[in-house]
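Researcher: For the annotation table, I need structure tokens for Indolepyruvate decarboxylase. Please keep the output clean. Sequence:
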Amino acid sequence: MSTTTTFCVGTYLTTRLEELGVGHLFSVPGDYTSDLLEIVDTKSTIQRIGNCNELNAGYAADGYARANGLGAVAVTTGVGSFSVLNAIGGAYVEMIPVVTIIGTLSNVKRLNAINAGELFHHNTGPGDENRLVFQGVTVAYEQISDPLQAPNQIDHALTMCISQKRPVVIEILEDCYKLPCPAPQGTLSPTPLFTPLEQLKVLAPTNTYAKGIVTAVHDAAQEICTLLTDKKVKPVFWIGHELGRYDLQELFNQLLAKTGVPFVSSLLGKAVLAEDTPGYLGIYNGIFSQTQLADYDCIIALGVWNTDLNVFGEKLKAPLGTGNPAAVLATRNVVKIGTTLYSQVSLENLLTEVLAQLKPQSSTSDVYSTAVLPACEQEADQPITYDTFFAGLNGYLTPQNLVVADIGLSTFGGSSFLTINRQNGFLAQAIWASIGWSVPAGLGASFTPGVRPIVIVGDGAFKLTCQEISTMVACGCNTVVFVLNNGVYAVEQILLNAEPFQKDSTAKFEAANVLQAWDYISLLKGFSNNDPQAMSAAVNTIGELNEVLAQISMHSGAVWLVSINLNERDFPASWQPFVTPKD
């Protein structure tokens, strides 16, 4: 970086973001951020994306980060920062690196608030409310009031973000953006969270701590190798999102090649490897699974979090987190095998040591076929259903598509069963589970080179965040949004009282779960002001779905909003255990 260029706080921040691969900044204008947005527009290569509200901007930055590595969002203090909090909470829980930039009161205004009791708009008072609000969902929080300290503060926050894979906040006082500051020095890179195994082995002879970790890694790997080579057990790998967050896919591919053991993925880890990888059996998501792990004696979970939605409604034969010696749960810094806990054993070091100890296995006599949805073979004039929609869409998807799925019937046993032959080609907020996330997240993912996002969202969730379709149109995106339009909050109804979904039932839905009908064709016209690159359709039959999919391919540069008109009592077949009357 040349030190002859004059930098201010704003250009320092945008330069560092550019260096880290951020090409788009999601934002809602506010008087405390106006100078920053002007700098973005005139003095950086970052494209500013104007969102419809701050929550959506946060979701968009989340989707952008999942697809591209690092996301950024800029909002004003108070009304903006409090609004974006939900999105940042989800990013924190699911390990998504997002930089939140908050513009706030100038130095003079802060002094007036403290000393004279003056209350300024968008503020709750003279306290440090933003730091208090965000402290539980960030790994770094920097408030910039001195331009001379700004470079160190910005570098610290960004380094923490890319190292921990979690959100940070950079709060900037409004009178600091254009103040001169020192130029960037060097480049930023992640700080390793764990010492590499080879380095630990070098240190071990003279360092008791390093020796202890090397021993733990060796012993944990040895136990896993024993399980993998025991001819009396039937092992299966269950892989999760941490393999993707820490770029460990290649190590796992080597493990597959050495063992020939099949694997399944968690919902959050879906498509962490392309699903045409040999040995892939499908998703495991409790009841909503393509393969039941109870069929296996030895479950080796790598990078999987033991959450309620990962084991939805089912007890495993080799339950994770218990004393069953056939259950292995390995996450980023701890390994549990039966009742034995190995701490400070990173997932990367564990995989490295397993590969070193493991001898290549003879090819398995079993033939594992990749799980796929059955083709839709019903007549073209048959009414569309959840299952026939997903079967039809599955035959349409290519590796150029990136699926962004909302939570609910649109995910569990639905989009989760799609075959995704693109590594990291499926995005879902499968722990935080904030409905409506998918539409703005799909907007963020739309800025990924070489992909066409497919958003799948229920009509109830769509109504929370649908305005971002107008942003897709404004930015010239070619995103496709499928709204699963059944007119009800189906998951809530099923969990409350599934009787309306039982065969031949005439039971009424709970009034709170009934949605107001929308005209989606006209809605898109309003959002796009009749832009010719904004197209909509309604699908009532299997034949109409096939026709619309063909049109979507033909108009490859357009934004599409497609209403999949479902019977209100329809549901994916995998939900039948929840619907069947209990004895």
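Researcher: And a one-line annotation?
Model: DSSP finds 20 helices and 21 strands in the chain.
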